[in-house]
Amino acid sequence: MAPFDILYDEIISFLGIGALLEMYRTGDYHALLSLNGILSAVSPVIPFLLLIEVGRALVYKRFRIEDYKIPFLIFVANRFISRFISIAAIAFCIGLFEKYALFKTSFTWYWLIYGYVIWELAHFVYHYLGHKVRLFWCLHSTHHAPQSMNLSVTYAHFFLEAPYADVIRTSICILAGVNPPLLFFIMFIDGTWGAFIHVGENIIKDGRMGFLNKVILTPSHHRVHHARNPLYMDTNFCNLLNIWDKVFGTFQYEKRDLAIEYGISRPMNPNNFWDVYFGEFYALWKDIVKAPGIRNKLLYFVMPPGWSHTGDHKTARVVKQAYLAQQQAQPAQETVQPAAPVA
């Protein structure tokens, strides 16, 4: 029975319904009057939306197993590898930096606003580094490898990404005075919304969500973030409040005349677990081996993806600049009329 018990526990954990089942078993629903009880009631929303998304795809015959296979395999692998690493990283950062906080906050609505703004800055920093530092991109690229968007993508992460992300985000927030209970509450909100913005078109066809597209970061914005189109690359790093993308010039709306192409720019097999999970590490290793001198080898770790010691850079910035230059040149070419023939 042990294997079935483990499987049952894993399913209950994935669905996030353990606390609700315990309330039903005991008949005591007073927990719903507490913050933890409310959070427990909300936790199953994303997993059940994923099931609805898959169900709708099956009903309308748009289900493709390859869209969900690799994220599922990554989720299973990460459950075995990194179950407690991220929690330990958060606890370590709190214990290390809390005494150095600029000031102390409390669990109130006005400090929640402050804390969320700081959290979004911390998330922006981690996410920006994940795209601009080659070693961190090796950790983050697994999340960008899927070539379609659906809720299963939220589970597709390299097992070390969450600990590295939480070290950066927790350290910044604690040093800025966000107290741990408030931080955990923000993490829950942000994690829930961060999962939701991966929702596929089977649930929300137009991810702009009306007027919200100008107020918060919507699924449309995050679909842009996951695109490999030159215009869309390295944009929309925030998670709920897109203020820091607007401050640092990385905000980009989804254009109605530019279809999103999901995935990463490196040639790869999106249906191969090993290529999705370790492919960027292998590509980094090959670049390091062929690079002359220790300086160039070390630069490959810290320079942006696409940087080359030869000077033939294919970074997101270079690719985007070339695309924009081409777009600007096209209207000029179209306005040039052929000269009239001489009689």
UniProtKB/TrEMBL annotation:
Transmembrane regions listed in the UniProt entry: 29-52, 72-97, 109-129
Superkingdom assignment: Bacteria
Residue span(s) of domain Fatty acid hydroxylase: 113-250
A GO MF label: iron ion binding
Location of this chain's protein in the cell: Endomembrane system
Membrane topology type: Multi-pass membrane protein
One GO BP annotation of this record: membrane lipid metabolic process
Annotated keywords: Lipid metabolism, Membrane, Oxidoreductase, Transmembrane, Transmembrane helix
Cellular component aspect of the GO annotation: endomembrane system; membrane
Lipid metabolism found in the keyword field: yes
Matching PANTHER family: ALKYLGLYCEROL MONOOXYGENASE, STEROL DESATURASE-RELATED PROTEIN
The protein's name in its UniProt record: Sterol desaturase/sphingolipid hydroxylase (Fatty acid hydroxylase superfamily)
